[in-house]
Amino acid sequence: MKKYLVIGNPIDHSLSPRLHNYWFKENNIKAVYEKKQVQETDLEGIISDVRDGKIEGINVTVPFKKSVIPFLDKLEIPEKSQSVNTIYREKSNITGSCKIIGRNTDILGFKNSLEHIKYNIKGKKIFILGAGGVTSSIIYALEEMEPSIIMLTNRTKEKAENLKKLFPRLKLVKWGDIENFDMVINTTSLGLRENDKIPLKYDEIGSDKFFYDVIYNPKKTNFLLEAEKRGHQVENGKMMFVYQAQEAFRLWTIAPNERSGLLPSINKKVLQLLEND
Ligand code: ATR
């Protein structure tokens, strides 16, 4: 039985096992996908389990998407994203040696989630809240979709400034201030807990904006509830989550001498899996 893992801390909330185990079954693949809470000091050992064939593939979540990087042999990610969420072993046809590859499927996940709802970024003014682990993937994806401007605000100014070094076109905004925008994206962890509130002046935002929250559990954060009350369009991170998982599954099922892999289904039944507790 092949073994796959999602690692993070905390990890209890992760719905990745439900999704991947369903897809393994659907595709008649004898594999099991589990979640494991780990510490920074466990990373090297777990990645060598991939090298040794004890584990086939790993998904990485908060807060290790950057800290796994030093233990990998080859990064197939845009350098600016600084983030790996999918790991697997690749065997060379010529030498027979193994390499551990790190990929980023969050970028495609975010893009596909917008395509899914047919929201076109081109020419739009985007306002990002936060400068955490997933933010660089989101900025990278957005830049490819040609918005007119990307603005970013973060409580800790230094982290926003670090992102600006990677993405010089970013316009930084003081935490608590707002700018005129078409779409606002919450990439902070504020909203994971029921009482979390983002200090946004909701009544000064105007109308008909698009509020996107990377968080999908809870389904509606206070950020989305406040927006909905005022008639804005809202979207949570569920489809981004599903599409990043779909791409990870595809990468894991690429057979030797083949490029495409299996793209598992995303349908009502799959989405339903993520609804019940
Ligand atoms: P990491 O920063 O380790 O990658 P993360 O969960 O990916 O962790 O990101 C946390 C994000 O949520 C950061 O943008 C963080 O802001 P800081 O850089 O100022 O820490 C933001 N965040 C978390 N709690 C917050 C709070 N109480 N108020 C404002 N922003 C908060």
Tell me the strand order in the biggest sheet. Answer: 2-1-3-5-6-4
Mean pLDDT level: 95
Could you name the ranges where pLDDT drops below 50 across 5 or more consecutive residues? none
Question: Judging from the principal axes of the Cα atoms, what is the shape?
Answer: globular
Give the helix proportion (percent range). 25-40%
Distance between the termini: 27 Å
Query: Ligands in the structure?
Result: 2'-monophosphoadenosine-5'-diphosphate
Number of helices: 8
How are helices and strands ordered from N to C? EHEHEEEEHEHEHEEEHEHH
Number of strand segments = 12
Q: How much strand content do the residues show?
A: 15-25%
SS content category: alpha/beta
Radius of gyration: 19 Å
Largest sheet: 6 strands, mixed
Element layout with pairings:
Elements lengths: L1 E7 L7 H11 L4 E7 L5 H9 L5 E4 L13 E3 L9 E6 L6 E6 L2 H11 L8 E5 L5 H10 L4 E5 L3 H10 L4 E3 L9 E4 L23 E4 L8 H8 L3 E3 L2 H15 L15 H6 L4
Parallel strand pairs: 1-2, 1-3, 4-6, 7-8, 7-10, 8-9, 10-11, 11-12
Antiparallel strand pairs: 3-5, 5-6
Bound molecules: 2'-monophosphoadenosine-5'-diphosphate.
